[in-house]
Amino acid sequence: MSHRRNLVIVRAGDNSVHPGWLSGADRHFDLYVSYFGNQPGRYADHAEYHEDRKGMKWPVLGEQLARHPELIERYEYFWLPDDDLVTDAATINRLFDFAAAYRLALAQPALTRDSYYTWPLLLQDARFHLRYTRFIEVMAPVFDRAALRTCLPTFTESTSGWGLDSVWPRLLAARGEQAIAIIDAAAVYHSRPVGGGELYKKTGMKAALRDEEAVMARYGLDRRALVEARYFSSGVRQMRLPLWKRLRDRVSRATRIANYQRLQQRDRRRAQDEG
Prior knowledge:
Blueprint: E1 6-12, E2 29-35, E3 49-52, H1 57-67, H2 69-74, E4 77-79, E5 85-86, H3 89-101, E6 106-111, E7 128-133, E8 142-144, H4 145-151, H5 164-171, E9 180-190, H6 200-203, H7 205-218, E10 232-237, H8 243-274
Parallel strand pairs: 1-2, 1-4, 2-3, 6-9
Antiparallel strand pairs: 4-8, 5-9, 6-8, 7-9, 7-10
């Protein structure tokens, strides 16, 4: 059995780019491929879990996780991305590492500046490691275990998923103002126009807008809640040392390495003498 602490679950079609997520580094995550295409068993060889199942992303994920509560018990963090996000294992590792280090309930990777996007807020801001916000898009949310349990019942309440990104922060408000963040240190490339995915072709954008209106009304919200998709409250900034310190550290690095090796040799000799 895998001892990885994180799980990625992707609803993958025949044009999914998720195989690239396994490249570039040793993974800190397991992969669950929920395949909705027309070639049963596709992608099964490179995933810890696999299923063939038609349907829209969020209702399927909601039903899947409700049927398998042991998955929620087994992992600490969960990433539920669309299948058109281009990234690699090292970036996904970093995404999970930042979410855990800052004890985030809900998060998402930033989008690279050349991505297709709806909300400018979600584009990577190089000044920050992460930015605290009250909006996480349904394209690529990261949940910790407790947040997933809280938000899971909503997954089946919007066929397209639209509107859920305004509801989740309200459901998690008790976790505090620094529980939700966009992680700029782990940016991914969104490779297709918004609404251009295979599943949306079956329902259309008008149906998605109706989903959004209905689910927000169910939780006492209206479109004014979308103002949260335009602002972040604070962030953790990238901090660079002054130039003179960087130059000093570069010059002294060889000396520090030599001193470290000398101390290691001394410790090995002591161990031999005591042996």
